[in-house]
Amino acid sequence: MEAQIRLTQEAITVAVVLLQLLLRAGPSYAAPFPEPVARANNGQVQCYAPDLQRKTCRGIAAFEIGSDGKLVATARILVSDSPRIIMTGKATVFVRSGNLCGRLTGQDIEDASFSDGVNELEPLQASLMRKIVETVVADALGREICGVFLPHGRTLIVRPTLDGAPMSVPEQDVIWVHATDSYRIGD
Description:
The chain has about 190 residues and is of the alpha+beta class. The strands form two sheets. The protein has an eight-stranded antiparallel beta barrel with strand order 1-3-4-5-6-8-9-11. It has a two-stranded parallel sheet with strand order 2-12. The chain has helices at about 1-20, 105-110, 125-135; strands at about 45-50, 55, 60-65, 70-80, 85-95, 100-105, 115, 145-150, 155-160, 165, 170-175, 185. It contains three helices and twelve strands; from the N terminus they run αββββββαβαβββββ. A hairpin with a 2-residue loop joins β5 and β6. The chain has one domain.
């Protein structure tokens, strides 16, 4: 149980930053994608907490323009190494002053799916994971979360804010990768 809590807490650092991508509402965009997600124009996705040697990410975020013209993010997040649990969610986000922003809701978490990477979790397991994630991010629900992406050597770092104030989570390394680069969700 202690190991599960530790792994969940470690994954939550990645999840909190990526959950900023699982947000609601925002202005409409015409293609191409705006900064800070302009690299999505060439089919690239964001890899969070990358392991460059193993080509793994603790989270992957992809962007598309929805049929309503709004920017849609799909994020896959490794929330537990053992047992392996991946959370997947899709939501609308918006860009303001170079930041990726939105508001996380309980419905975002409710709509997320949970799998072992191959098969969906049993409903009871998925419900437990939703409750864990909802508890960890409870203070951020309904509040504006934004992230700014800053150059950091060969990577970017994302610095999240909550209602304009810095969040007390570690900065996350992020790289842009192509699907052909064979990066995957891993530990």
